[in-house]
Amino acid sequence: MKQILLVSAVYFAFAGAALAADAVVTEPTSDLAPAGFVWAGGYVGLHVGYGRGNGNAVDLDDSFFDESIGQTHDVDTEGFVGGVQAGHNWQTGSFVYGLEADIGYLGLDGVNEILDEPDNYGSAKLGLYGDLTARLGFAADRLLIYVKGGVAATRYDVTFGDINDINGTLDGNSSESRSGGRVGYTIGGGVELALSEKWTTKLEYQYFDFGTVGLTDIQGDKAEVDIDAHTIKVGLNYRF
User: Fold this and answer.
1) Which of 8, 58, 65, 199 is the most buried (most CB within 10 A)?
2) Global pTM value
3) Closest CA to 91 of 41, 52, 26
4) Which CATH number fits domain 2-239: 2.30.130.10, 3.40.50.620, 2.40.160.20, 3.40.50.2300?
5) Percentage of residues in the chain with pLDDT exceeding 90?
6) Confidence band of 163 (pLDDT split at 50, 70, 90)
7) First to last CA, the chain
């Protein structure tokens, strides 16, 4: 709840900052976009927000977690996200469609360590990310309601395995760490409000699915980890 309230506070701060910036260079009566606001055109901006995700590991045999086939060990990840975006809109009547690209950082990480039986360990982390999405929306003057979807990629680090019963550390014979890049998909939606002819602000939800990472320990035992994330972001755009 604290994170959501913080994101909301940042959202309204963005809106206030944009209105203040526009007031410096325009007459007060022109701050608001006119009736029949035109959304077509290019834009750039930035976003910040909060995310939660999962790194869910499933034992594919009876040895990776030294228990049974299908045994799971889940890691919840969370953290703040941020980045920049750029895109272009086209408009036909009240329908707005376009393309948007994001580049940023998913600062989501988490650890789940269980020292008692079944004494499992897991950690997961997401880092740099980017996406390219198509947007489709309905405009009611200065308000745009939209959905989006496309391809996404991220940098990840995961470690899963058993805890050594003797010294309480990660068992090197029954664990593996993997890191690298993953490509997946993203879907989401949001609302965007025109504060003026040049500035818009948005509140957006986005889901990321980065697929499955395979793990194999030195004994040949296998597991797989599903990686996903949910984010809520606020953004500020400048229109060309």
Assistant:
1) 65
2) 0.83
3) 41
4) 2.40.160.20
5) 67
6) confident
7) 36
